[in-house]
Structures are given as C-alpha cells and as structure tokens.
C-alpha cells in the first residue's frame, strides 16, 4: 500500500493540503501544460488553420472556373441553336464571371 501512495504522490495527484480552489487551479495548469505538449507533439494547431485555408482556396477556384466555363458553354450552346454567334457566348460568359465573383464575395464574408 505504501508503494502505491508513493507512486501517486510522485505524479502530483495525491492528497493535497491546499484548499479546493488551489487544487483546481493546479489541475487546470497541469491540464493546460499537457494539452500544449500534446498539440505540439501532434502538430494540431498549425495543420488546422492551413487545412481550412486550403479548402477555402479550392472552393474559390472551383467557383471561378465553374461559373465561367458554365456560362461559356451555355452561351455557346445558345449561339449554336439560335445562330447569334458570338453574342450569346459573350453575354453568358460575362454573366458567369459576375456570378462567380458574387459567390466568392459571399464566401469571404464571415457567417452571421
């Protein structure tokens, strides 16, 4: 039994003669230190911000390319059926660009 008590007090988790508030502060400090060590060990802090930025950049690129190409394809198809070349293509291409920038602006605003 005395070996077990010695191990518990080595870790700093044995009976504490400090008041309950001091013990809670001590526990909070030890937990914060352990979380910092774990975050540094796993690299969790740096990877999360970079991953989110990468995802947002990919979304912006997809919006820009998708809306522009989609508008151009729709305009070209309209021109092909209606014989109004190149006006349908140009109008729909510019509308696609406007829609792409509108979506990018909406993505860049913080959520409400």
3D architecture notes:
The longest helix is centred in the middle third of the chain and has 39 residues, at 44-82. The radius of gyration is 30 Å and the shape is rod-shaped. The chain is mainly α and 112 residues long. It has helices spanning 2-10, 20-42, 44-82, 87-108. The mean pLDDT is 83. The chain starts with a helix and ends with a helix. The protein has a domain at 55-108. Helix content is 83%, strand content 0%.
Short description:
The protein has 4 helices and no strands.
Order of helices and strands: HHHH
How many DSSP helices?
A: 4
The beta-strand count equals 0
**Portion in beta strands:** under 5%
**Overall residue-averaged pLDDT value:** 83
Q: What would the principal axes of the Cα set say about the shape?
A: rod-shaped
Alpha-carbon distance between the two ends: 58 Å
Work out the helicity level. over 70%
Structural class: mainly alpha
List the helices and strands and how they pair.
Elements: H1 2-10, H2 20-42, H3 44-82, H4 87-108
Helix pairs in contact: 3-4
Give keywords:
112 residues, mainly alpha, rod-shaped, 4 helices
């Amino acid at each position: 039994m005395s070996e077990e008590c010695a191990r518990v007090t080595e870790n700093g988790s044995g009976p504490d003669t400090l008041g309950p508030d001091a013990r809670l502060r001590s526990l909070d400090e030890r937990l914060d230190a352990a979380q910092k060590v774990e975050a540094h060990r796993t690299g969790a802090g740096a990877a999360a911000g970079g991953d989110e930025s990468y995802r947002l950049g990919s979304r912006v690129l997809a919006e820009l390319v998708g809306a522009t190409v989609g508008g151009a394809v729709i305009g070209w198809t309209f021109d092909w059926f209606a014989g109004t070349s190149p006006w349908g293509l140009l109008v729909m291409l510019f509308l696609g660009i406007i829609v792409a920038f509108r979506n990018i602006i909406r993505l860049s605003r913080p959520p409400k």
